Records
---
Amino acid sequence: MITDLALLRLMQLISPSLPIGAFTYSQGIEWCVEAGWLNDADRLEQWLSDLLQTSMQDLEIPVLLRMMQAWSDDDTASLQRWSELIMASRETSELRMEEKNRAYALFRLLSSLDIAEITHYESLIKSSQAAGYSFASVAWDIPPHQACLGFVWSWLENLVIATVKLVPLGQTDGQKILMHLSSQVDEVLERAAQLTDDEVGCSSPALAIASAQHETQYTRLFRS
């Protein structure tokens, strides 16, 4: 069971107002809109559903679960290994830079909140956003399932908000997409929790293409 305080800490950790710049990234969606790949609510929902059932299910969530366990066990070797897998899975320079920038910003934030022993793990926390998020989740006694729920929700909400601005879509369309996709999350988390170490990982070619094209897009509102 999650305590009230841990729930509040989770809400703080996933809030759009968290000063790590999550709102400045579209993860290639900005180029997808310009190219005509995503120009209505149905296409956006399908795009995010595909990523939810691949990238989130087969990479992000399994790694997050393993990192939380590694923090609990003080297993720095495992933490380093899973962070390296996350970075190796970022298929463009923009996606790698986003991961690093968010990690550095999260470390600065957590340092300012005086979490015990954080400076001892500075290099690990700066190695990936997942490392910092999992560290904070363990430090604040947020259970793994709720931490993963929050992580997925933050990702979904950020990208829906970005696309609502870019297409543009109505706010109601965005809320409908979040309603539909949130109903898939429990099943995604259940599948992710069942993966063995050898099964963790995925490739998202369309995302990689969109991100690579965004690197040289003529005008941009977002950093990736």
---
Amino acid sequence: MDARRQSRVTDTTALQPPGQTHTATSGAPDNSRWWWIALAGLLLLGLAVIFALPGLVDPVPEATVPAQPPPPAGDTAALRDTAHQTLQAYLQLRARLDLDNAGAWGEPDWSEAAARASAADRYFAQRQFTAAVRDYQAALDHLQQLDASRSEILATALEAATRALSANNVDTAIAQFQAVLAIEPEHPAATRGLAQASSRRAVLEQMNRAQAAETNSDLEAARAAYRQATQLDTAYEPARTALQRVTGLINTRDFTATMTRALAALDAGQTGAAGKALAEAERLQPGNSAVRDARQRLRGMRAQAGLDSLRRQASGKVAAEDWQAATELYRKALSIDASAGFASEGLRRAEERSALHAQFDHYLETPARIYSAVPLANAGKLLAAASEAPPDEPRLAGKITALRELVTGASVPITITLNSDGVTSVVIHRVGRLGQFNSHQLELLPGDYTIVGNRPGYRDVRKAITLRPGMSPPPLVVRCEEEI
């Protein structure tokens, strides 16, 4: 576009009907012509009534005056009409552009059009209609060119504003964005750009503050200033990039310190402290391979610590001959590490010892079991298989001794005496038939016995006797005395 449109001069000249003076913005009226103005006053008033008033009531469609060849030089009336029509077209277009605030964005065409129209007015007042037509047409051409160049002017101003904002030339950016908004008041890009330009000084102040803090290695202060800059202008890329970079530096610094603390704790065997530090490191950099490797090491340490603890607990249970509890502890150890040799070997021994103690307890908890032939034989086999208890198993030794005493006692017969009447037949269940007698003495192993006497015509007699090792039972009378 013509370079002259880069300037912005506000025109305050209002166009007048032909015969009235147009004063240029940059100059004063020519004093030598004041007498012309006085003489032309009546003429201007008449022309305004005759020509200007009808055109204002019934205006010609704007910007539609066709370029016509000028009338013959001697045709004064035709030249006057052409000048009037051109003036009407100019006034209508100027009025519309004035509503669009063209005075704020249409320089230099706006002022040049006004100047040419003012000159045309003077020529018209002097009845120099050919010159008046020429300058009215030139004024109209300037406004038509201005109207046609509106989009180009807007684009040029927007480009200049954007370029100035990128260079942090705040004043120029604000002026150019305001120029765009003068053409199109709700232009989105210009509205955003003006807001950015208005806050740019504050943004740059925060950027300078952040850079100074970063130079002094105060990363937290730098991050706070960069964040403030991004809040002032969310679209300012340098602030966003710097904030991301400083945030990354802080993250790396904190992560390195946290990992150093975690590894030191691992080396010292402080699994609790190591776990907390690694959790913080994972929060700082999720998925970091160093954290993953350290966690693997921590799991191994915790597993080993768990195994060591279970080994100690199981050893205590073994020493106390609490084989059931030891069995459970060895199983927990194997759930942590199936290849733990102490646990697999310990579990085998604990299960064996637990089963052996259960067999002894089977008899010792209910000694009466042993006073039967089959249980007594089985108890004997158990004692033979168990042999002697190891020195470090006194509980087992005590059970072996107790069962041996039970077996020994159950194997020693006890002498009992039975008295009858010689006519009652006596039978001892699980022993045999004794027949009829007055008195009979026999030996029975400890146990529970049932003795039955029967006699024809009499009710049977049933006696129960319990024999235990070391007993000397009194004589037992068995005879049928109640007739049926």
---
Amino acid sequence: MPSQAIAKAPGKAILLGEHFVVHGSSALAVALDLGVEARAEKYDGNIISSGREDNIVSSKIEDAKGFLAPAAASLKQFLKDYSLSGVKVRIMSEIPESAGLGSSAASSVSAVAAVSRLFDIKLSKKKLYDYSMLAEKIVHGKPSGIDAFVSVNGGLVYARRKTKRVLQCKPFKLLVSYSGLQRNTGKMVSKVSSFKEREPKSFRNLIKAINALVPDVISGLKKGELPILAAAMNFNHEALRIVGASNQTLDAMVRDARDEGFVGAKMTGAGGGGCIIALPKQGGEKEFESFRAKYPYSFLCNVPADGVRSWLV
């Protein structure tokens, strides 16, 4: 008899449109083959924990605080809705927190998916998304929902206002590199909003430019043609730098990636820290190894990855 259920949900990177999507532009995000794994088993009590063997933090689900609180909120509501009790959930992440890679969404999605598999409850993607959004509201206040949608569905995701859908996309490789600086999403959102108030015409023009690029990028990704994505990424980073979302560390990482031969590079997520992403030439291994020598917390991901998966062991 299986004694555990395991679920793994992908993280995400925003290819185009972060910050601008909040103000009406289009955005493209992609699921990474880095993510969060949750293991669930029946237990005397409701417990959530996170970390590896040498550094595990644990709490009762109903009392969870700090970084355990978002996933615990999703689990608490799920258990209540289905009148369930007696489960221990352990979350193990491959992606750093507060880095713009969707770790909170992937944690809540994987946790609820693992528990639902353990109790043989079939959740629709929409229900799983709704449970994850309880966690996202704790983390982001008024989340766009992109992180949760990507984590549940995987693939290449188009988002604009309340519309989100998965698009066709041929696979490609993408560098993800962590700056080591945690970002404050609320602070960066306020900073960009302040620019919009000071320079409304410039901000509108940047949104128009992003919107004009997105359809061409989508068309290229369907065919496996990447030059337009590279050009759009380079433009998008400059747009984010103009509105104040980048900083010296991220700018330096982007320059170094381009100097190493990556054809497109940009910050991803809220900015002020977090990660950059970069598009390699065909193959990409040579420039990746050279870049990683300077920035060790770097990964060459195969994208787009699948959405959440769960199984019994």
